[in-house]
Amino acid sequence: MNKPLILVVEDDAPVRNLIATTLKAHDYRFLTASNGESAILEASSHNPEIMLLDLGLPDMDGVEVIRRVRSWSNLPIIVISARSEDTDKIDALDAGADDYLTKPFSVEELLARLRVTQRRLAVPGTVSTESVFTNGALKIDYAAGCAFLNGQELHLTPSEYKLLCLLSKNVGKVLTHTYITQQIWGRSWENDIASLRVFMATLRKKLEQGPDAPQYIQTHIGVGYRMLKLE
């Protein structure tokens, strides 16, 4: 698997150097930027495949960087920030970030997040435009409107099926409660989020049949959900 080109956007020199040293030690190619304007310039000039982005930049908020990059690019953006409140995570994810890593972080966790993102880049149709999606024992035939687990058709309600399709088309990406409810029901009210939790619980029971079954859906408490990519 070829290593992607990574853009590191971090104004704190010691943290930037730590990330750069880690990437170099693991044979990643990388560029660095210390503020939002230079990050946008580097992203548009060099087409990096992944961005590691701090939110607390000197010239603009990192969320604004995400919004501006998202206006023309879908490159995966992993936020690395000292902001740990759910609202900060939700704002970044709703703006278009793919993942959120809170400082202080371990080098091992950073590398793990990069590997997950790299696998998404390497799998054709991860943000799926294909008519059939497969992930482990799960198969979704979008054209037929059916889902199967271990070759057996899953009996899903319309809302459960919509949720499963939305998560599968964004496999590996954290989707916020607000984003999901807007996509499923066209709005985001408090009652919709409560309903989402119920539908997600029933969907999980159908996907994860027994204590030894693989986990397909990961909960990010207070933020949203992510479908995991199984080997």
From TrEMBL:
Signal peptide: none annotated. CDD domains: REC_OmpR_KdpE-like, trans_reg_C. Residues 130-229 form the OmpR/PhoB-type domain. SMART domains: REC (SM00448), Trans_reg_C (SM00862). Keywords: Cytoplasm, DNA-binding, Phosphoprotein, Transcription, Transcription regulation, Two-component regulatory system. Residues 5-118 form the Response regulatory domain. Coiled coil: none annotated. The modification 4-aspartylphosphate is found at residue 54. Pfam families: Response_reg (PF00072), Trans_reg_C (PF00486). The keyword Thylakoid does not apply. It comes from the Bacteria. Residues 130-229 bind DNA. PANTHER family: KDP OPERON TRANSCRIPTIONAL REGULATORY PROTEIN KDPE (PTHR48111:SF50), REGULATOR OF RPOS (PTHR48111). May play the central regulatory role in sporulation. It may be an element of the effector pathway responsible for the activation of sporulation genes in response to nutritional stress. Spo0A may act in concert with spo0H (a sigma factor) to control the expression of some genes that are critical to the sporulation process. This is Stage 0 sporulation protein A homolog. It comes from Pusillibacter faecalis.
